[in-house]
Amino acid sequence: MELFDTHCHLDVEEFDEDRNEVLAAARAGGVSELLVPAVQRATWPALIRLCAGDAGLYPALGLHPVYLSRHKPQDVAALAEQVAHTRPVAIGEIGLDWFVPDLDRETQQRLLEDQLEIAQSFGLPVVLHVRKAHDAMLNTLRRYRLNGGFCHAFNGSLVQADRYLDMGFHLGFGGMLTFERSNHLRRLAVALPLDAIVLETDAPDMTVASHQHQRNSPAYLPEVLSTLAALRGMSEEQVANQTTATARRILRV
């Protein structure tokens, strides 16, 4: 089996001491490919170098809504220039976060729209971060001609899920699925068609139940796979094959 981690921040400092070992452990567990999404302009050069050194690592470039205070007005133009030069596989991680207090919603919205225009211009899929803002996000997406993408760590309603799917987006499920208390998430994972789902870790955050309160790792993705397969009454191989094929198709890798 080959697994695709569609959301792993392997470039961040939490992995500076043992990045190669973490990646080796992930590969030993069948995680052959990883999408590494950026969160701010300062991290783009190191992220690009990391992915350039490994054929199974793919860069996504973007400006994350939670880091509004770190973004500068010229960063959007810099993103367009970097995308033209680097040709990442996606724009992300971008989005709307109405959960974190004191994050200006109008500024988030403008930043999102600016980056969606870049994605549309370059014909790239999008990696979305959405918390407490799915309806606003969906209403925004319908104004653009996009090549789909992933709604990372999806936890909305089934109706909202269907709207994302209608626009070519697929839904990321990760470590939270492994917690028995995640009833809503587990119901979603069963109700959705399998080809709507991709696997992710969001490492170093949002770890699996067996490593609660510890740093998350792409090596734990097989635990997400195992949980999803058990919930759906399918073999792990079936789920791995479909989710990996979906990720590769959306990212065109």
Task: Describe the structure in your own words.
The chain has a single domain, classed as Metal-dependent hydrolases (TIM Barrel, Alpha-Beta Barrel). The mean pLDDT is 98. Helix 3 (75-86) runs parallel beside helix 4 (105-122) and helix 8 packs across helix 9 (236-251). Helix content is 41%, strand content 16%. Helix 1 (19-28) links the parallel strand 1 and strand 2. An eight-stranded parallel β-sheet has the order 1-2-3-4-5-6-7-8, sandwiched between helices. With 253 residues, the protein is α/β, with parallel strands linked by helices.
The top-level CATH class is: Alpha Beta
Terminal Cα span: 17 Å
| Secondary-structure class | alpha/beta
Strand content: 15-25%
CATH fold-level topology: TIM Barrel
Mean pLDDT reading: 98
Model regions low in confidence, pLDDT < 50 over at least 5 residues: none
**How many separate structural domains?**
1
Question: Could you name the CATH homologous superfamily?
Answer: Metal-dependent hydrolases
The count of helical stretches stands at 9
What percentage of residues falls in helices of 4 or more residues?
A: 40-55%
Tell me how many strands there are. 8
CATH architecture: Alpha-Beta Barrel
Main sheet: strands, sense, barrel: 8 strands, parallel
- Given the C-alpha coordinates, what overall shape results? globular
Oligomeric state as shown: single chain
